[in-house]
């Protein structure tokens, strides 16, 4: 609900009380956007909903409400239509004043939330010594955008990287490391074993082929768990090398995140099992300790257990998530915990959420949300792979996007016969390439699979990053062409809305706050993308009327007013894109 709707709601409340008495104070006016702009901007359906209670015809109720309704500062006189809808049309003067007010506000008039709270976004979370794959890329992009939106709304956001930095695979990796580069373990230098992913693969080959190796690896696991110094040292070296590689990706994507990996919760794991036992939930099943789940059954229809301690005494992914959940509630005091992972992990989240609830660990004011997303597919509709069938390294994927965006740019510069410096070309190619990857991901409803296509995401037309960036740069071009500094447009620049394209743009600009609070709730950044795309189309309709002549060459006060509309559109695009983690370009 935006500021205008909130004001209207208040007015309705007063009218309802005046018409039918104090009992009607809390009644929802059921204010919705008008289904057809011909009827106005908003429509209140409350009269229909009260018909039964009041025992009157909805039209009569609507008339009684309208009689007491004072919205003259905001709307034209309300009209009653159909069975009893109350139609409201915003006054032009009202819109003009609103636009004028937000023009100099860095938040564009969007208020921060009335209920700021601590929120955790658990995202990215790749696994040490394994590759960071496209699934982690989606998590990183979506999680970052969600975190940005929550931060903008004024929440206290903790961005957590729950990296997989613990587990039996380290026994194998450390054993292999001792074999192939023993010297690495005795020097204080950072590890440099090249590509960690192929290191992992080789270690696995070695592990699978040799029983003695397997036994040594098992002993290494025990040494790691009991904290043997040299083993811990080797573990740290491996983590550091991975961390450096992840950081390259985070830097490229401009993503901030705090690492708090699985190993952090090690000391808390035994108490998870003890406390589940104390609350009577723990059951021993074939040597493993587990909790039986409701609503999850195996093929035979028998209830499924969630294992929290394996028969060999080891803990697992779920145990760690239970421990981290408690820590986040008790120590971090989080009120909403958001997990961004692929939809394939949905059961995992539903299961440990259920166990934590049963154990009474989730206070009523804490919300747990799994934010699932679909797969990244190649253009053939199959799993995204390189031509040779290998998984795509993220580094390569992002570099490729930049290379292709540079090729597009150079072609365009040639066509337009423009000369630009290498610095300009580098910057534009990088910003456009990275933005294209981010926007392609964010503009899809995250719950569906999406097809990764460089051609589509780099297209200057359509709902793409280049289109959005171009819309922004185009507006900056107007200011350059007219020698106008938008920031210096007089503070009290008057807005006059005359043409229908101006009114449509103005009304749309005022809807940004509603979109942001919707995304704050449903965590679907694609809604913001749709809004920005629609906004730039509305801008083009306004600007392209007579090829923009009506802006720079218009008479005053229209000229300044229209420039304010340009400026506000650019500022809204910039703000919206920044919430998607996308940087704008003044020129491109
Ligand atoms: N490391 C996991 C993976 O790569 C993702 C972790 C997500 N966060 C969590 N708290 N389970 O699939």
UniProtKB/TrEMBL annotation:
One of its GO terms (cellular component) is cytoplasm. Gene3D superfamilies: Arginyl tRNA synthetase N-terminal domain, HUPs, Isoleucyl-tRNA Synthetase, Domain 1. GO terms for biological process: arginyl-tRNA aminoacylation. SMART domains: Arg_tRNA_synt_N, DALR_1. It comes from the Bacteria. InterPro entries: aa-tRNA-synth_I_CS (IPR001412), Arg-tRNA-ligase (IPR001278), Arg-tRNA-synth_N (IPR005148), Arg-tRNA-synth_N_sf (IPR036695), ArgRS_core (IPR035684), DALR_anticod-bd (IPR008909), Rossmann-like_a/b/a_fold (IPR014729), tRNAsynth_Ia_anticodon-bd (IPR009080). Residues 468-588 form the DALR anticodon binding domain. CDD domains: Anticodon_Ia_Arg, ArgRS_core. Its EC number is 6.1.1.19. Residues 6-90 form the Arginyl tRNA synthetase N-terminal domain. A motif ('HIGH' region) lies at residues 126-136. Keywords: Aminoacyl-tRNA synthetase, ATP-binding, Cytoplasm, Ligase, Nucleotide-binding, Protein biosynthesis. It catalyses: tRNA(Arg) + L-arginine + ATP = L-arginyl-tRNA(Arg) + AMP + diphosphate. GO terms for molecular function: arginine-tRNA ligase activity; ATP binding. It is found in: Cytoplasm. The keyword Protein biosynthesis applies. Monomer. PANTHER family: ARGININE--TRNA LIGASE, CYTOPLASMIC (PTHR11956:SF5), ARGINYL-TRNA SYNTHETASE (PTHR11956). This is Arginine--tRNA ligase. It comes from Halotia branconii CENA392.
């Amino acid at each position: 609900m935006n500021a205008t709707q909130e004001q209207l709601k208040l007015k309705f409340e007063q009218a309802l009380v005046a018409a039918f008495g104090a009992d009607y104070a809390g009644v929802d006016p059921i204010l919705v956007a008008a289904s057809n702009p011909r009827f106005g901007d908003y429509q209140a359906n409350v009269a229909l909903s009260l018909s039964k209670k009041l025992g009157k015809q909805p039209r009569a109720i609507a008339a009684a409400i309208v009689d007491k309704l004072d919205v003259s500062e905001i709307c034209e006189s309300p009209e009653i239509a159909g069975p009893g809808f109350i139609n409201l049309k915003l006054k032009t003067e009202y819109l003009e004043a609103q636009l004028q007010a937000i023009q100099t506000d860095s938040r564009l008039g969007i208020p921060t939330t009335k209920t700021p709270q601590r929120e955790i976004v658990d995202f990215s979370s790749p696994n040490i010594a394994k590759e960071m794959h496209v699934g982690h890329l989606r998590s990183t992009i979506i999680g970052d955008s969600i975190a940005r939106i929550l931060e903008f709304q004024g929440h206290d956001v903790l961005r957590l990287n729950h990296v997989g930095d613990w587990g039996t695979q380290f026994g194998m990796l450390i054993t292999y490391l001792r074999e192939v580069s023993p010297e690495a373990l005795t020097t204080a230098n950072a590890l440099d074993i090249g590509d960690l992913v192929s290191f992992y693969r080789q270690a696995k080959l070695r592990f699978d082929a040799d029983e003695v190796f397997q036994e040594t690896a098992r002993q290494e696991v025990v040494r790691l768990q009991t904290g043997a110094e040299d083993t811990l040292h080797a573990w740290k070296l491996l983590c550091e090398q991975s961390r450096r590689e992840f950081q390259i990706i985070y830097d490229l994507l401009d993503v901030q995140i705090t690492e708090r990996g699985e190993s952090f919760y090690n000391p808390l794991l035994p108490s998870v099992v003890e406390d589940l036992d104390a609350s009577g939930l723990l059951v021993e099943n074939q040597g493993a300790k587990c909790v039986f789940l409701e609503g999850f059954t195996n093929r035979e229809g028998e209830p499924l257990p969630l294992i929290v301690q394996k028969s060999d005494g080891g803990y697992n992914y779920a145990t760690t998530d239970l421990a981290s959940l408690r820590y986040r509630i008790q120590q971090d005091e989080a009120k909403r915990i958001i997990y961004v992972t692929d939809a394939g992990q949905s059961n995992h989240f539903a299961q440990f959420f259920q166990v934590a609830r049963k154990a009474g660990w989730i206070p009523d004011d804490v919300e747990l949300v799994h934010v699932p997303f679909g797969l990244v597919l190649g253009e053939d509709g199959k799993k995204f792979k390189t031509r040779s069938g290998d998984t795509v390294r993220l580094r390569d994927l992002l570099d490729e996007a930049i290379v292709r965006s540079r090729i597009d740019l150079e072609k365009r510069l040639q066509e337009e016969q423009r000369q630009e410096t290498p610095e300009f070309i580098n910057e534009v190619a990088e910003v456009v390439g990275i933005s294209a990857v981010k926007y392609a991901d964010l503009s899809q409803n995250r719950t569906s699979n999406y097809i990764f296509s460089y051609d589509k995401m780099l297209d200057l037309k359509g709902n793409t990053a280049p289109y959005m960036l171009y819309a922004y740069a185009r507006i900056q071009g107007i200011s350059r062409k007219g020698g106008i500094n938008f920031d210096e447009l007089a503070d009290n620049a008057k807005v006059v809305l005359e043409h229908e394209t101006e009114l449509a743009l103005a009304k749309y600009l005022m809807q940004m706050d509603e979109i942001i609070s919707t995304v704050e709730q449903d965590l679907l950044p694609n809604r913001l993308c749709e809004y920005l795309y629609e906004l730039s189309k509305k801008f083009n309709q306004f600007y392209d009327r007579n090829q923009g002549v009506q802006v720079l060459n218009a008479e005053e006060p229209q000229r300044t007013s229209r420039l304010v509309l340009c400026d506000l559109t650019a500022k809204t695009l910039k703000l919206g894109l920044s919430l998607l983690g996308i940087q704008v370009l003044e020129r491109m």
